[in-house]
Design brief:
Elements lengths: L1 E5 L3 H12 L3 E5 L3 H8 L10 H11 L2 E4 L10 E4 L15 H10 L8 E4 L7 H9 L5 E4 L9 H6 L4 E4 L5 H11 L1 H5 L4 E4 L1 H32 L3 H9 L20 H14 L8 H23 L8 E5 L14 H11 L3 E5 L4 H7 L4 E2 L3 H5 L4 E4 L4 H4 L3 H7 L4 E4 L6 H6 L3 E4 L3
Parallel strand pairs: 1-2, 1-4, 2-3, 4-5, 5-6, 7-8, 9-10, 9-12, 10-11, 12-13, 13-14
The protein binds uridine-5'-diphosphate-glucuronic acid.
């Protein structure tokens, strides 16, 4: 099929390359000329495992191209909208500027019978509004939310765990058939596919992210209780996780969730519910957000307490900047937040991350970035682990003790083995354990 993908950020760039790798003919569009030039050259503007390979293969096959010119989309059968919906500057709701302008920009180029398929995460009610704007062109609109995780984006796009199509009632069968043709390979592998209305499709996405955020904040709330009772939240998670109704995944306590999705999505959902007069239905999301943000401060407080309240000029190695491993994304990153807060208190913070140093440096040039993990550790009077990279999990406590000045470690992701670290002479503090 001939496809266009509007917006070549995390979602769009991966979607464009993945669709081309499945055999479709794809044009990726973005207003950012630098990003388009990079992608057209086979370079990824961000770190995502496996993306380089499929991008280069797809470009070489001739089935993928990138452009800043919207006229290039004219012969596409399906136009995927993958632009960002960040949090508004003036409130908790979603900023729909990019979605609205993407629709305006494609409008003159839509051929009758083509399908605009929204992938961006939007407040419920958006698709119905956009469908009316698209209708006079003779094209139609569907909402096809995306559930990819950063770090697994390629796999999640090519082998999704489910497909959701929100379509207009009147054209349900035609629109379903078009999207089925796009996702033929996944469907042949028995991927569950749900065909529904716009509102449900929009809500599926925010409900899923709200549930995941709630699960993480639930276990972090248990960590807070564990901290005052001497219980171990990791063992608690293992024990309740054996109940298949609960499940062990997303029950890792620590500095909490961040990234470009979970935090802004729960805030936007709460704001939308307020607009709908149903704020009370998701009022718990405010607590989910508060619990989450408290955990960042908790790590900072622990570090400050270890210096008897005087962190000024004390050298702290902050291991991790990305909001999660296998990513260079620092949007709303708990790790970066911890580094910035400690620096703000006068500590001599030295940060290290295997991938996110450049993105962090651009956003926070005032921080000190070590060239290597060893350099970050050398001379440290406290070590704070805030992103669960496998390099940090694999740290050898004995060797690490030789590098630092004071063997005090704060395991903000509960990834180190407390007994091994204590045996090597460390003062170990985890989150709720
Ligand atoms: C999230 C969802 O998991 C995806 O399904 C969704 O498609 C995506 O948002 C999106 O809306 O685009 P992602 O932002 O890549 O994906 O990150 P997650 O893997 O969900 O992790 C989010 C944060 O939670 C990270 O900071 C991670 O460290 C933290 N986390 C995760 C925990 O603190 N504890 C856990 O047990 C799991």
């Amino acid at each position: 099929m001939k496809l266009s993908v509007i917006g070549c950020g995390y979602l769009g760039a991966v979607h464009a390359a993945a669709m081309a790798s499945l055999g479709h003919d794809v044009v990726g569009i973005d207003v950012d000329e630098t990003k388009i030039a990079l992608l057209a050259n086979g370079e990824t503007p961000f770190f995502e495992p496996g993306l380089d390979e499929i991008l280069r293969d797809a470009l070489a096959s001739g089935r993928l191209r990138f452009s800043t010119d919207y006229a290039e989309i004219a012969d596409a059968d399906v136009h995927f909208i993958g632009v960002g919906t960040p949090q508004r500057r003036d409130g908790a709701g979603a900023d729909l500027t990019y979605v609205d302008s993407a629709i305006q920009d494609i409008l003159p180029h839509l051929k009758p019978g083509s399908l605009v398929a929204g992938k961006s995460t939007v407040p419920v009610g958006t698709a119905a509004r956009l469908a009316e704007i698209v209708a006079p062109s003779g094209a139609r609109l569907a909402w096809n939310p995306e559930f990819l995780r950063e770090g697994f984006a390629v796999k999640d796009t090519i082998e999704p765990d489910r497909l959701v199509y929100g379509v207009a009632d009147a054209t349900r069968d035609e629109d379903t058939a078009i999207l089925d043709a796009v996702y033929a390979k996944a469907l042949a592998a028995d991927t569950p596919r749900l065909v529904t209305d716009y509102a449900t499709a929009e809500l599926v996405k925010v409900a899923a992210n709200s549930f995941l955020a709630t699960k993480i904040s639930f276990i972090n709330a248990m960590a807070e209780i564990a901290e005052v009772t001497g219980a171990d939240v990791t063992q608690l998670a293992d024990a309740i996780g054996h109940d298949v109704r609960i499940g062990r995944r997303f029950l890792n306590a620590g500095v909490g969730f961040g990234g470009g999705c979970l935090p802004k999505d729960i805030r936007a959902f709460a704001a939308r519910a307020e607009e709908l007069g149903k704020g009370e239905s998701v009022a718990f999301l405010k607590q989910v957000d508060e619990i989450n943000l408290r955990r960042r401060q908790r790590v900072v407080d622990l570090v400050v307490d270890s210096f008897d309240g005087q962190p000024f000029d004390r050298r702290v190695a902050v291991l991790g900047l990305a909001f999660k491993p296998d990513s260079d994304d620092i949007r709303d990153s708990p790790a970066l937040d911890v580094a910035v807060r400690l620096k703000g208190l006068g500590a001599e913070v030295v940060s290290y991350d295997p991938e996110a140093m450049e993105t962090a440096r651009r956003a926070h040039p005032q921080l000190t970035y070590a060239a290597s993990l060893d350099e970050a550790l050398r001379g440290a009077e406290a070590v704070v682990v805030v992103t669960e990279w496998k390099q940090f999990r694999a740290l050898d406590p004995e060797r690490t003790a030789e590098l630092v000045d004071r063997p005090v470690v704060f395991d903000g992701r509960n990834i180190l083995d407390p007994s091994a670290w204590r045996a090597a002479g460390w003062t170990y503090t985890g989150m709720g354990r």
